Amino acid sequence: MKKIRTVYDHIRANNIKTAILVILFPIIFVALVFLFTWIVMPMNDAVNTAVRVAVPTFAVCIIWTLISWVFGDSMMLNMAGAKQINNTDPDYKYIYKSVENVALAAGLPTPRVYVINDSGLNAFATGRSPRDATVALTRGIIQKLDRVELEGVIAHEMSHIGNRDIRLDMFIITGIGVTVFIADALLRGITYSAPRSDEKNNSAAVIMMVWLAFTVFNVIITPVLRMAISRRREYAADACGAHITRNPIALANALRKISGNSTVKSLSAQSAMASVCIANPLKRRAFLGEILATHPPVEQRIKRLESMVI
């Protein structure tokens, strides 16, 4: 008989994934540095370069982990342009109350509530743990969904909080931010440097290979990691969200409406944020974009939710 996965299984799996991710990021990057520097120099020199790069890489990884833990949620909310609301705000008092009710039904602390001033329909959750979590909703999703549908969306996000998906997301997004920043700094250094000797030319070639390793890591490796981590857990969050509200059809109807306009302007240049949202906030892309999509097809999600109706 197949074992039924519980919320504790999801939490344990996400804790393991987080640890693996923190370890894999520097190892994969150092391996890429070795492979690319091997192109421009003998193998022994490439090994020595990789070893020299490994020390600062692991140091940066430790710093990245600390930054993610302390500032990760604030960084994500700033990227989205989200503003906090509370239960005294007359325009959003019922939204706060809905979040409070769903959190109570889920057996979780009430998260902070933020609103993104965008007409697109989307939402995400962030934070280190359920005790300091945040749920962010777009103005569009608040206006276009009825209360039952909106509670289904909130329950989906509360499931991500309960399953500890939010911590894993923070590490991924801040990690990508760090690697993009370093890659940009290296490119600027290559662009503005003016080597005048063979030794400096050799150093420039090594820096170019390190930059190439960063670029390949950002463009190819991280999207694959995000895709591998994100797709299955969306199904889990849908199922848990439907269980919290006892209304899978409400979430299914919400997903139908969201799929018609999930684009969020403030996140259009933040591809790393796509994996945390209930639906892809970026503009639709062609075939390759579908292959590397962080979310399973909406039609499949709706079909699974509808099958939960007894």
Can you describe this structure in just a few lines?
By secondary structure, the protein is mainly alpha-helical.
Structure keywords:
6% strand, mainly alpha, 4-stranded mixed beta sheet, 310 residues, 10 helices, single chain
Question: How would you describe what is shown here?
Answer:
It is a single chain. The chain is mostly helical. It has ten helices and four strands; from the N terminus they run H-H-E-H-E-E-E-H-H-H-H-H-H-H. The chain has helices spanning 7-40, 43-80, 93-106, 139-144, 147-162, 165-192, 198-245, 248-260, 287-291, 298-307; strands spanning 82-85, 112-116, 123-126, 134-138. The chain has a four-stranded mixed beta sheet with strand order 1-2-4-3, sandwiched between helices. The two termini are 22 Å apart. The model has no long low-confidence stretch (mean pLDDT 82).
Query: How is the largest sheet built, in terms of strand order?
Result: 1-2-4-3
Radius of gyration: 22 Å
The chain-level structural class is mainly alpha
| Biggest β-sheet description | 4 strands, mixed
What is the secondary structure topology, with strand pairs?
Layout: H1 7-40, H2 43-80, E1 82-85, H3 93-106, E2 112-116, E3 123-126, E4 134-138, H4 139-144, H5 147-162, H6 165-192, H7 198-245, H8 248-260, H9 287-291, H10 298-307
Parallel strand pairs: 2-4
Antiparallel strand pairs: 1-2, 3-4
Helix pairs in contact: 1-2, 1-6, 1-7, 2-6, 3-5, 5-7, 5-8, 6-7, 7-8, 8-10
